[in-house]
């Protein structure tokens, strides 16, 4: 659920994750700046005009949120029917005063963010492993029942090229959302370890996700950041990760265990071992990808469906 100013930030994951992988979700957005409505802030004017059109443009069916209590059930039935049958999102647009005022009861409580003991300064070795070497170490060290979520671009493609497995999900879009996806999966599968293979450019794009993950702290989530200081998948443009200490960012975001891992042996040991608390591992890699790197021939829907089937067979 969003204000429509926040709804705009969901265009990428809705179109390149939910729609492509056929992952249904109910999207409820307010209609701040409704044309012809009460006076609103100027920053809401344009978004208020285009909010319904955004659903149309993304080909997501929608309707207005009901204003009467007895209408809520039928609306949700229509939304549920669509999501179950089409495996696609459904939208509800909430006009002002559609629901009565209600005092929020937040569940947020202060978290201790000093649990991660980490040196403020660290010198990475000049010789760094390649991304392929790190991914090989991850694949060979997986524990039974582990699932892997690989960020979009070369990370997912290299993982696929090494060995395509049903417990691997390749995010072909929604850049920056691998951590959030992994969080949801870890919360839904608390008895299964979830390993997120993230990239520096992707993580920087949505740093706020680290704070949410650090608050929720699922004990079964291992978040590995592969950092070559480049947007390599789009041509090798430099990121700013060379001037950001991602390990300290994770620690400050509430990750209770944060590691800097300079070697493939260290990665292998980490993955082969038991994960008993939310863990962030920062791994610096050297630039470069294999030549003629293939793209997955399995479709996103096939990747999702076979992972679901694999998890049912491997509880």
Structural class: alpha/beta
What value does the average pLDDT take?
Answer: 93
Shape: globular
Main beta-sheet strand count, sense and barrel state: 6 strands, parallel
Number of strands: 11
Question: How large is the share of residues in beta strands?
Answer: 5-15%
Figure out the total of helices: 12
Helix content: 25-40%
Distance between the termini: 31 Å
Rounded to the nearest angstrom, the radius of gyration is: 21 Å
Strand order of the largest sheet: 5-4-6-7-11-10
What do these coordinates show?
This protein is 39% helix and 15% strand. It has helices at 4-7, 11-21, 45-57, 69-86, 131-141, 154-162, 178-188, 200-205, 208-216, 246-252, 264-272, 300-313, and strands at 26-30, 62-64, 90-94, 147-150, 168-170, 194-199, 221-227, 230-231, 237-238, 257-260, 279-284. It has a 6-stranded parallel sheet, sandwiched between helices. Helix 6 (154-162) links the parallel strand 4 (147-150) and strand 5 (168-170). It is globular. The protein starts with a helix and ends with a helix. The model has no long low-confidence stretch (mean pLDDT 93).
């Amino acid at each position: 659920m969003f204000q429509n100013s926040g709804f705009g930030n969901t265009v990428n994951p809705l179109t390149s994750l939910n729609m492509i992988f056929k992952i249904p979700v109910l999207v409820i957005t307010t209609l701040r700046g409704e044309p012809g409505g009460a006076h609103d802030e100027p920053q809401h004017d344009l978004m208020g005009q285009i909010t319904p059109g955004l659903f149309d443009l993304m080909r997501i069916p929608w309707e207005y949120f009901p204003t009467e209590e007895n209408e809520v059930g039928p609306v949700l039935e229509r939304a549920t029917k669509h999501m179950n049958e089409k495996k696609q999102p459904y939208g509800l647009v909430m006009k002002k005063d559609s629901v009565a005022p209600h005092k929020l009861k937040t569940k947020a409580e202060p978290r201790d963010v000093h649990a991660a003991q980490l040196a403020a300064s660290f010198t990475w070795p000049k010789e760094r492993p390649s991304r392929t070497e790190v991914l090989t170490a991850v694949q060979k060290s997986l524990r039974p029942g582990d699932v892997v979520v690989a960020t979009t671009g070369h990370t997912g493609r290299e993982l696929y090229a090494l060995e395509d497995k049903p417990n691997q999900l390749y995010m072909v879009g929604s850049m920056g959302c691998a951590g959030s996806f992994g969080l949801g999966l870890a919360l839904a599968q608390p008895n299964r370890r979830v390993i997120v293979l993230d990239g520096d450019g992707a993580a920087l794009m949505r740093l706020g996700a680290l704070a949410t993950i650090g608050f929720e702290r699922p004990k079964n989530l291992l978040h590995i950041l592969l950092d070559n200081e480049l947007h390599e998948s789009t041509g090798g443009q430099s990121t700013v990760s060379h001037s950001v200490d991602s390990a300290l960012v994770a620690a400050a975001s509430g990750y209770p265990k944060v590691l800097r891992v300079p070697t493939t042996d260290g990665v292998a040991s980490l993955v082969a071992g038991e994960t008993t608390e939310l863990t962030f591992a920062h791994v610096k890699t050297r630039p470069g990808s294999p030549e003629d790197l293939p793209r997955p021939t399995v479709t996103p829907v096939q990747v999702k469906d076979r992972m679901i089937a694999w998890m049912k067979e491997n509880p």
